[in-house]
């Protein structure tokens, strides 16, 4: 089941890729159904907070008319950063599934673990490595093309 929803997140990552954005995609699921989809838009919107996870949380909150995303799970292609991990905790996401680690800014196990190392009012479960190779490949392809100046 996690692979099905990670594939949907990968489709969002592909949309980001096509826009010249770092290809990270995210979906939020409640009761077995996707309620929000998003991808990175930092470059497009000139806003550092426009990460896929933040945008998906905003869409899910709007759909549910609630800031508490109780019983919701997040599927994201890249390990969340500290900003996104903090938003995940505050949104009360039940579980995060992510594809590949972010060794430079990852806040769910790589650099540190915001979901596990601190005692917050809400604990978020997580699982890493869902379709890891596919999630790594799109990022590697993007940065390879970027280095060759084929992406704006």
What does this structure look like?
By secondary structure, the protein is of the alpha/beta class. Helix content is 39%, strand content 20%. The protein has 5 helices and 5 strands. The chain has helices at residues 2-18, 42-45, 52-64, 82-91, 132-147; strands at residues 25-30, 33-39, 72-78, 95-100, 125-128. It has a 5-stranded mixed sheet with strand order 2-1-3-4-5. Helix 1 (2-18) runs parallel beside helix 5 (132-147). The protein is globular.
User: What is the molecular shape?
Assistant: globular
Q: What class would the helix/strand composition place it in?
A: alpha/beta
Question: Spans with pLDDT under 50 lasting ≥5 residues?
Answer: none
Largest sheet: 5 strands, mixed
Over all CA atoms, what is the radius of gyration? 14 Å
Task: Kindly estimate the percentage of residues that lie in beta strands according to DSSP.
Answer: 15-25%
Total DSSP helices: 5
H-E order: HEEHHEHEEH
Write down the overall mean pLDDT: 96
Q: What is the CA-CA span between the terminal residues?
A: 36 Å
What topology emerges from the helices and strands here?
Elements: H1 2-18, E1 25-30, E2 33-39, H2 42-45, H3 52-64, E3 72-78, H4 82-91, E4 95-100, E5 125-128, H5 132-147
Parallel strand pairs: 3-4, 4-5
Antiparallel strand pairs: 1-2, 1-3
Helix pairs in contact: 1-5
Summarize the structure.
This protein has 152 residues and is α/β, with parallel strands linked by helices. It has five helices and five strands.
